[in-house]
Amino acid sequence: MTTSVRYERQGQVGVITVDNPPVNALSQHVRQGLLDCLAQGLADDETRALVMVGAGRTFIAGADIREFGKPLVDPDLNRVIEAYENATKPVVAAIHGTALGGGLEVALGCHYRVAVAAAKVGLPEVKLGILPGAGGTQRLPRVAGVEAAIDMITTGKFVPAGKALKLGIVDAIVDELVPGAVAFAEKLIADNAPLRRVRDMDEKVKAFDPAGFETMRKAVVKAARGQMSPVGCFDAVTASVTLPFEDGLKREREIFTGLMESDQSKALRHIFFAEREALKIPDVPSDTPTLPIRTAAIIGAGTMGGGIAMCFANAGIPVKLLEMTQDALDRGLGIISGNYANTVAKGRLTQDAMDKRMGLIEGVLDYDALSEADIIIEAVFEEMDIKKKVFAALDSVAKAGAILASNTSTLDVDEIAASTSRPEFVIGTHFFSPANVMPLLELVRGAKTSNQVIATAMKLARTIAKVPVLVGNCDGFVGNRMLEPYGQQAELMLLEGAMPAQVDGVMQRWGLAMGPFTMGDMAGLDVGWRIRKRRAATRRNDLFWPTVADQICEMGRFGQKTKAGYYLYEGGSRVPVTDPKIEQLIVEASKAAGIERREVSDEEILKRCLYALINEGAKCLEEGMAIRASDVDVIYCFGYGFPAWRGGPMFQADLIGLDKVLADIKRFHAALDDRWKPARLIETLVAEGRSFADYDRSR
Ligand code: 3HC
Ligand code: NAI
């Protein structure tokens, strides 16, 4: 008998408690414990019904993902669920926290389900590149209906208890978990209620007309953009309609096995753990005391400042927004309220919630108003002199112990910190545009930033629903620094013979949210232009510097915001349209540079873009600017539209084989220029027969 599952009796009801912290994952000992406790409950003559509950903060959060990729040790989950479904006494699942994946599948194997109001249920396996492999694709449509099941299973979204009740996934909402579930079970006993097996409930699947599947599948394939698991999930659910239950289970198993072995699933599992690993900072212990953050302030109500203020208001933290003039403030607040109003119009926020959030944002013009803020984030123009003045002003008004943060995307955090008398309280908080939407938050550690400030910022990031990664202080930090050589390769290939649409097409088909030129147009081409001008004096003279981007900016074309950049965006459209004028400009730029245009293959485009990221990522690692390779992957997947199912650039390097990547980098180095000098770390790892993952594990 394992200790992670226990059985005790309350009157006529046997309570089976899963106790496997932190999230009651279905590890082998839990699966065995569930079988053992069920046998005990069935053998106990005093017991007439059973309740299954999770100890601690949640019901069961699913299979133990750490066991994936290893040989399965009996009993397998399907056998456990089958045993519960076949039980001769009614079993009630009592859900709090989250019932996810295998956790919800176990609950669906029980005869009845109750939940507390705050609970959520879901089958998020699709996000791990697999599908619910313990009957979820066959049982959920039987209780919730086929369309709702397809929606939940192909997207992995969580459903709150109230909605789960309406859908028929749970049978009742209870106020108190165990007493409520026990009372529910007692009523079943009193009513002599039947053993309601989900597998026999086929009304909803029989009523569904499979003629609609073809069109629905096309929509799923389109939305998946190359990811296999949503399509596998869809196909498995269709089997609940087209096949008898047992055959449906077999079909689910076949698709599950194929997905589990795929590189996509490995990549998604890598990102799942990488996101959590990024929270661990080797020299900042997890019990480092943090500072309380009850109020915040933002300087600058522009593109970024407004979005950052929304992040705080969304988390219920009052925030002051400071601008230089009333006009600028009104404009900034107007944009924020317009953004919220759009969300309300789409039905994703209530008017009441919008009013509450707007009520938490207060516009101010005077620095004195910031004296009580626990954190102040500067988001003014990207100019060192202005930032220094702002920080000197903050130093004189901010209370002792306030965190002074900068949203700079490239500037030296130490130089900014030096304009204050308290550099230990200064940190970079690099949000990504649009700040209220993009999950990544690069936290930039200055030379003097204290551990307490780092720990507080990491915790705060989670409070405001961001994915934080701590990086070092260098030009561009990690994400933008890697973007630089990536963008340069893309532009060099234009001069060699490619066109923007070809480069973007290759990267987009490979899975990126958008290619480099579409991304530049969206972010604003003037941003890079300003950075290039700043760096012009210090850049290497022995390299060839392409000028297409500068020429486009000189024409006043800054991308989407000016309706033209690399592409045209007529009538306010966000869809890039090829502009023959730019193609002509590119051909002429090749001629002016004395380059004979050639056909650039799609394979070359992919390799030069991807390997430029990998090589620079490795340099960030060897310099200690990134703590681990998986942090770089988190940065790219959460901040730059890199597909999570590709696992990030460093994961890709391992997957391809670092030796192969190095061979290509060396080939580019010989054929192209010194931009391709291989990172020392890659050479070392290849010489030692190691990968980025080995490197992470050894640290
Ligand atoms: N298996 C193994 N470890 C898990 C886990 C799981 N299913 N879920 C969470 N953990 C671990 C995390 O890695 C983390 O470990 P760490 O502290 O060492 O870094 C710890 O539990 C706490 O997790 P979080 O930091 O994510 O805690 P939160 O409270 O923020 O979130 C959660 C809790 C919502 C349950 C979130 O962890 C989550 O979404 N987990 C994954 C759920 C999931 O995908 N379930 C499906 C699994 S696949 C499956 O069931 C297959 C089946 O169909 C056969
Ligand atoms: P923006 O130009 O949209 O907004 C800047 C705002 O700051 C303006 O509203 C301006 O009036 C205000 N401002 C300037 N000086 C001020 C002062 N002394 N006191 C108070 N307000 C002042 O600029 P954006 O894009 O919001 O950028 C802000 C910062 O965020 C920059 O450091 C930028 O590098 C960084 N950043 C920008 C990203 C982007 O995609 N736009 C992404 C990540 C970081």
TrEMBL record:
Listed pathway(s): Lipid metabolism; fatty acid beta-oxidation
Family: Belongs to the enoyl-CoA hydratase/isomerase family.
Name the UniProt record assigns to this protein: 3-hydroxyacyl-CoA dehydrogenase
Localization per Swiss-Prot or TrEMBL: Peroxisome
Keyword match NAD: yes
Coiled-coil intervals, chain numbering: none
CDD domains: crotonase-like
UniProt KW keywords: Fatty acid metabolism, Isomerase, Lipid degradation, Lipid metabolism, Lyase, Multifunctional enzyme, NAD, Oxidoreductase, Peroxisome
Entry superkingdom: Bacteria
Domain 3-hydroxyacyl-CoA dehydrogenase NAD binding: 296-473
Ranges of residues in domain 3-hydroxyacyl-CoA dehydrogenase C-terminal: 476-569, 605-690
InterPro entries: 3-OHacyl-CoA_DH_NAD-bd, 3HC_DH_C, 6-PGluconate_DH-like_C_sf, ClpP/crotonase-like_dom_sf, Enoyl-CoA_hyd/isom_CS, Enoyl-CoA_hydra/iso, NAD(P)-bd_dom_sf
Catalyses which reaction(s): a (3S)-3-hydroxyacyl-CoA + NAD(+) = a 3-oxoacyl-CoA + NADH + H(+)
Keyword Nucleotidyltransferase: no
